[in-house]
Queue: 3 jobs
Job 1
Amino acid sequence: MLTLDEVRGQSRVVELLKRAVDGGRVAQSYLFAGPQGSGKYTTALALAKAINCLSAPGVGCDDCTSCSKINDGIHPDIRTLEPEGAKGNIPIATIRKQVIPVLAMAPHEANARFFLVAEANAMLGPAANALLKTLEEPPERTHFILCTQAPSQLLPTIRSRCQRVNFQPLSPELRAQMHGEDEQAETIRQLSERISEQMDSSGLDGILAVAKDTGDRTTLIGALEQCVQACHHAARASATAVDLASAKVHARRASKILESLVAIREHNAHGQLAVEHLLVALRGLPLPRVSGVRS
Ligand SMILES: [Zn+2]
């Protein structure tokens, strides 16, 4: 997931939104218009994170409890209205159940509540009409972001109640680059999952077996970074649940993996040496000297 500063290929949009956040002038209803894949929904999430971030308010950190809940789709005040059924529409019942009753209450924990619609054209006439009055006078600390590929097909009354933000199509070069990065991110995610599973079932030896299989140093480092993050989240969750024993186990795991990451980075070792370092660091033994092999 991304923060506002990390949104790609939409510098004008990002500037506009950052100025609005800085000046306390974030509109209550936005219409994010632009082609598929231009980052409308990701930007909407990034804006919700920026406004509600606990570590970097107004910017977003992607890591605090608030940002993590938004990324995981479990923040009680940041809701996405999803299309339903075979036709993929957002029915009027969704607006009546998930939006209208909520508006009478203050947000649970957010500075500002957000309702996001990934494709506003999925709201047919009745659903859109049900939303209209709310868009006209949204309650305080409540924002709507409607994303659309076809703004001209929305009700004119919906369009006129939202501040429109136009997203540019991404260049083919940037799309290709992002596609490659997505693929690498997926590889890293899968590897970190394997490492975490092995950590649970076979302890350190299991992690080492996975790490040894992995010839690519960048992928290994990325996966280990994700493992550290996962351990930190788990430690935080255990601490919140007052399960201090589990919190300590997770924190110890995180620091072990972190040690090996630091070793790998500092020595800038190639794949095999990186793994050797990992083996040693995880076993808690002193690190051997590494000759200046560069990757
Ligand atoms: Zn944050």
Job 2
Amino acid sequence: MTIEGERSIPTTRCPTARQLSAAGHRVVGIDLSPSMVTLAREHVPGAEFHRLDIADLRGGRLGGPGSFDGIVAYFSLLMLPRAEIPYALGLLHDLLRPEGLLALSMVEADVDDFTIPFLGNSIRVSGYLRDDLRRVVHDAGFDVVGEDAYAYAPASTDVPPEIQLFLHLRRA
Ligand SMILES: C[S@@+](CC[C@H](N)C(=O)[O-])C[C@H]1O[C@@H](n2cnc3c(N)ncnc32)[C@H](O)[C@@H]1O
């Protein structure tokens, strides 16, 4: 993915934020979790992080319509119920400049607000099969310009690998 200039790029967490910040981009990150925001600030001091619900991106909290060149949402929208995902994608769409880029990752799974164990806790997750995910992002106003899929399983467990989908999207 190519991101131009030194304009704004929001993201939700650290390794990607660190790379983008080190490359000279202005990086603005959000997360609902205060501890994630604290960690992000520690790991990427050159970026700006806010504790914010993605649903509160409306109303110009981080910038007006079209104010971002690119957005990264890695495994964050999967924590929303399906009913809220198109709305969240719509908010991200409106924050991007025309032809702005969205890097989106999700786990491929046909589930809606489904409880799973995660790091000793329970979390609720949603997902789509890949054709359905392509349709959801298309309906939210994005063109799919690239796509990768990886099988991933933590080394510490013997659960079957999950399929992680990475969509490279452009605001249509
Ligand atoms: C599975 S983690 C992924 C974290 C990171 N992006 C990564 O790839 O490692 C999902 C993150 O989304 C955040 N999150 C969940 N719901 C959110 C919401 N409504 N608004 C903002 N962040 C949210 C969680 O706090 C969590 O840090």
Job 3
Amino acid sequence: MRSLTLALIAAIVACSSAFANSCQQFSASTTMANGVPAAQWRTDYPIKYPDARVKQTWEFFDFHTQPIDYMNAVLKDARTSFRISNRKLVGTGQEPWWISEWLDYGSSGREPLMGLTKERGPDPGDLSKTSRDGYQVWAVGFYNRAGAAVLGDVFDEPCNPSLPVAIKFPVGTASIKFLFTDASPDEVTYLQGAPEYDAYIDPLGSGVSAHPAKERSSRPVRLLQVDISVKVRGSSETGWVFGTFVWIGPPKGDRLFDNLVPVSLQWGNDPEVYDSSVKQGWINQDLRLVTYGWDKRPTMGFLGRANGPADNIRSSCLSCHAAARTPRASIGILDNRFDMNDVTDTKKVKAHVDTWFQNIKGGQLFQPFEPAASALDYSLQLEAAIFRMCRACQTGDLHGSTPNVCRTSGLYNRAICSAPIEEGTKRELEMMPPPRQ
Ligand code: HEC
């Protein structure tokens, strides 16, 4: 089956310019919505897992004591794979990086030009002291060979993905995610002179609000942030290390990787730390007053934990990602209601930290008292993929039998996907907020 699927994908890739969705019973890909050829990222997932005994280049550094070297070693792997061409981020065609299936549906589904999905819209004062409201952030994320082999197992049957009770990414897995924004460089001054890329995004000023894909138009965006994650060898707080870079001008070298400056790296959530004495991460102090250090954003993440400029100060990289499960827990992946004026209220801070900043080992379930079909080992892409696929089944955009995981997770319970439903209701369903809140 797998080889048949691969042959099919190869045929599709060869004869059309779109990466499309590999599920033949689905024809509502947002990469098709704007009538332009879709980006050609890889979904021909590797069949064989690489030998996990072979050390990756970054493993020669200790992330606790050499965070910058560690992060740069991960980035180095991507340097030869991605470049800017024709106002787009492109791969070599043979880059050892793969995207996830099923992120191309709904109001935050992949746009065609770079395959970007819509992310959380930053709050005013998030990206810089003077950044205003209404800006959009769009991103595309990839897994390396080890991670993509897991995607291959999951999406062996693209219309009926299979998820074990606990997904386990192998040691050596790395993921990289490029985040772009339409924020003005007049306000976010470190983006001045940054190369422009084109992407089909929502109307100007939309912020996080949802729009149907056909309302998108091609507008310039700039690279803001590059996120990385790595599954580590041996025991550690969580089994993962998450880190982020920010693009800082003026442009130099390749104007892509050569401008990336490490912002933060995190290996634990500092459970039970209710003040700013966090230790399970590293923050680049040189970026004080550049990416943090003002009233609205005194720190990158909650009480000094790691996060990127596009991320919510109430969270951290690991706190959101530790909540990856299908279905999502009823409290979601982040509590946006925490009032940042309450950071001195010990009771409220304790409740927030104890809920969100645990050290959950990859494969363990967040909020285990709520049943789940699968713990997703920190992969929020897999979570978004399954959620969107089940939504497509519910709205009648995916035809035929309901994928098993939709039923086991309770996301959609009928045996057969809906007949196409009324436009109004469908729109409402499609417009559910993007997953990164
Ligand atoms: C508010 C929650 C949230 C925070 C905080 C967050 N992320 Fe994510 N991240 C997501 C979601 C949702 C996705 C999947 C959807 C997508 O890629 O559009 C994702 C995807 C990713 C991916 C792609 C692989 C995967 O795990 O799905 C990487 C790598 C990543 N994030 C790294 C980071 C790093 C590094 C940080 C901190 C600097 C961070 N994230 C902070 C929500 C978050």
